[in-house]
Amino acid sequence: MRAILMAGGFGLLGTLLGTPLAIRLLVSKGYGQLIRDDGPTSHHTKRGTPTMGGLVIMISVVVAYFLAELITGNEPSASALLLLFLFVGLGLVGFLDDYIKIVKQRSLGLRSKAKLAGQAIVALTFALLALNFPDANGRTPISESISFIRDLPSWGLPAAVIVVWVLLMVWGTSNGVNLTDGLDGLATGASVMVFGAYMLINIWQSNQSCAINPGPKCYDVRDPLDLAVVAAALTGACFGFLWWNTSPAKIFMGDTGSLSLGGAIAGFAIMTRTELLLLAIGGLFVLITLSVILQVGWFKLSGGKRLFRMAPLQHHFELLGWAEITIVVRFWIISGLCVALGLGIFYAEWVSGA
């Protein structure tokens, strides 16, 4: 528990104190955000705001985790290291995308195929590695089953299918957070709630681990307490970054931040055996991603008609005249309700013993 508290504190201090330094450095280099001409016109005032702030989150999380482990004398676990690999690897893909936007002055950054390929390389490497490294009880960081709140017993699948499943989850979640990152503080605030939820889930799974309390209600998860340390570091880092990222944002996380945070969320869902529960916990990201899918699908089927004034969904409400801060706070409320629903389902399953 000391490691969890320390990781959260170090993560918070890292971004709270480190982000102003990053802002000054990025401004001096002229690394400002480009604004797409086809976006809401109100966003043109944000042109030049420093971006790539996700680097501060990445560094803070990694440093916070290893500092907490060092001070408490804990040995880093395979699960935590693999999750950090997924987190940092996708962040580097996002960094390359942000760098191209700034240096090449191309607002779309990496070509979509190149970005998906980069995400795939990181996700597939993570999946292949995480199917190995069993602990003393034979548990690997990820399992060969699809899970809801725990592995579904009849859904055991070949390793190749699980690798593809992990790839789809990482693609969907990282791009879902990326789509949500369109208004000041929106994705950061929602991520705080999701990582906080996974910190609680990991602590609960540790207390009810099959290695400690065998029985029908125990959780067959590898390294849950160490995963809680990573979740605490992410929660604290996002909180600290939100101080500077909230409206009016002094810095944007960029794809560096959104892809890395999305990858971490997918990693937690996979490693805690709560893959399908992510639809509830990450409900805001699901809703915003669906708005883009529906918009594109309907546009093609109807010959050019639109369901929303603009997608992703948050921009639809901007064009309806809602103030940016109003949209952000109301979407935070939706995210909080989704997280509460997910945690409620998680706890209710344990209480019922189903």
Please describe what this structure looks like.
The protein is mainly α and 354 residues long. Helix content is 66%, strand content 3%. It is built from 12 helices and 2 strands, in the order H-H-H-H-E-E-H-H-H-H-H-H-H-H. It has a two-stranded antiparallel sheet. The mean pLDDT is 91.
Number of strands: 2
Estimated helix fraction: 55-70%
Rounded to the nearest angstrom, the radius of gyration is 20 Å
Binned strand content: under 5%
- Regions with pLDDT < 50 over 5+ consecutive residues? none
What is the residue-averaged pLDDT?
A: 91
What overall geometry do the principal axes of the alpha carbons give?
A: globular
Main sheet record = 2 strands, antiparallel
Structure classification:
mainly alpha
- Termini separation (Å)? 29 Å
Name the strands of the widest sheet in spatial order.
1-2
Count of helical regions: 12
Counting copies of identical and different chains, the oligomeric state is single chain
